[in-house]
Each structure stands twice: as structure tokens, then as C-alpha cells.
Amino acid sequence: MKKIISTLTLLLIIYIPLNAQNIEQIISKFVKAKGGYQKLLSVHSQRLTGTITFSTNESGPFSVTIEHPFKMREEMEINGKKIIRVLNGNSGWILNPFSSKKDAQPLPLKIVEDMRGAADFNGPLVDYKAKGNVIKYLGKDTANGKLAYKLKVIQKDSIVGYQYIDCTTGLELKWEGKIGAEGKGHLMQSLFGNYKKVDGIMYSFDILSGTPEQPVEQHIIINKVEVNPKLNEDLFTKPVSSKEDSTKVK
Questions:
Q1: What is the pTM of this model?
Q2: Which sign does the torsion angle of CA 178, 194, 117, 169 carry?
Q3: Residue 137 near residue 23 (C-beta atoms within 8 A)
Q4: What is the Cα–Cα distance from 135 to 151, expressed in whole angstroms?
Q5: What is the structure's pLDDT at 249?
Q6: Alpha carbon separation from 213 to 148, 175, 209, 217, 218 (Å, rounded)
Q7: Residue 110: which domain range?
Q8: Longest dimension (CA), the chain
Q9: In the chain, how many domains are there?
Q10: Which of 115, 129, 207, 230 could form a disulfide with 87 if both were Cys (CB 3.0 to 4.6 A apart)?
Q11: pLDDT at position 171, please?
Q12: Shortest CA distance to 139 belongs to which of 152, 153, 149?
């Protein structure tokens, strides 16, 4: 019995540093594949434009503009009407012409928190210790038909997600996690593909999002990526409808 306990103890002692080493090696590979630490930190703003298509066959132009820290503006046009979501620090609004309220409404706190996470365009792995995130290596798995390292990411705000890093390229293949109030909502996933280099950084130009049961609820195809564009700060204020704009002009 003593021999068995000693062997288990030794295995634990060996496993802990090896697991930590694996995490650092995987993240280092990911950072290098994306463009390198210094290059990633040189980005303070970005704009991605393309098209978004839903499972209902509705589609239209899509754009997301992000500025560090925690500023983001999403726009998508469906049936000639534009939906706008804005994040500015700890505040957020949505202007939805399909709703009964025609002026911009405050976003729920959980949505603001989700958008704050998305506004970190380097993601939770880069500088994860400084961000207060905890990373756990769960071994290898398959994602999008490829062998991947599976990482459990626990962010300091208790948001839990799983990232799958391509064993060959080091790029992210898949993200999954729960969205909704206090992380108790639906399990969602996003698949990333068609990576291209823009200004020395690799971006996914093809993103499929949905649930495990219906993987393709939303399909984003990026047509253009702008790195460090000059942005007007009005982009990140409470949005107004075109009707309100015309009234102000008069």
C-alpha cells in the first residue's frame, strides 16, 4: 500500500509541472501563429466588414469595429433595416428597428459582459495571467475535423469557455461555452476557418456559430480587415436612429 501511495504521489508531482508546461507551450504556439506577442500588442483598433447569414436564410452586410479598451460597435443590416449594438466601457446599447421601441435601449448587464469579452481582440489566452484568467489543459480532441489541444478557460469574471487550438498550425479552430444569464443559458459554439494574414496578424475570414444540435445558425464571411484604423469616438456613443439624426439636422 505504501508503495502504491508513493507511486501516486510521484505521478502527481510529475503531472502538475508537465501540465503547466503543456499550457505554456500551447499558448506560446498560439501567440506565434497569430503573429507574435509584440505584433498583437501593437493593435489598438480594428474593423472587420463582411456579410452575415442566418439559418432562416436572411442575410446582409455586417461590420464590427473595436477600440482598446472595451469599445465596440456592431452593425448588421437585414431586410434594409440596420441593427446596431454599442459597447463603451461598462455601458452598452442596442438600436433595433424590428423591436417595438424605436430608440436605443440599454443592454442587459450579461450582454455587456459578453461584449467586453469579445472586445478583447487578443482573446483570453494572450497575457492570461495578467488578466486573471485560469487555463487548464484537457488533452487532445478533434475540432472542425482536425486534431486540437483543448483548453478550459476560466476568466476572472467566472465566465467559462473552451478553446480548441490546432495541433499543427497553432490557430484557434473552435470555441464553445454557455451564453446567457450567469452562464446558465444555451451551449454555443463557433468554428473558425479560412485564416488570412493582414498586417502580420492571422484573422479568420469564415466563422460558423450555433449550437451543437444546429451548428450553422449564423455564418459570417469577412471580406475586409482594417488594422489600427483611425476611428471617430462618436461610434461608441449611444446610437440614434436615422429618423432622430434627420430631426437633429433640421
A1: 0.85
A2: positive
A3: yes
A4: 7
A5: 41
A6: 21, 15, 11, 10, 13
A7: 2-249
A8: 87
A9: 1
A10: 115
A11: 98
A12: 149
CB 55 within 8 A of CB 214: yes
Average pLDDT, the chain: 87
Burial 195-220 (b: 16+ CB within 10 A, else e): beebeebebbbebbbbeeeeeebebb
Closest CA to 235 of 64, 121, 118: 64
Mean pLDDT score, 177-200: 82
Question: Residue 72 has what pLDDT?
Answer: 97
| Helices within the chain (DSSP H only) | 2-34, 37-41, 109-119, 242-249
**Grid cell for residue 23:** 499550457
Q: How many CB atoms lie under 10 A from the CB of residue 168? A: 11
Give 4's pLDDT tier (boundaries 50, 70, 90). Answer: very low
CATH number, domain containing residue 209: 2.50.20.10
Q: Do the Cβ atoms of 192 and 204 come closer than 8 Å?
A: yes
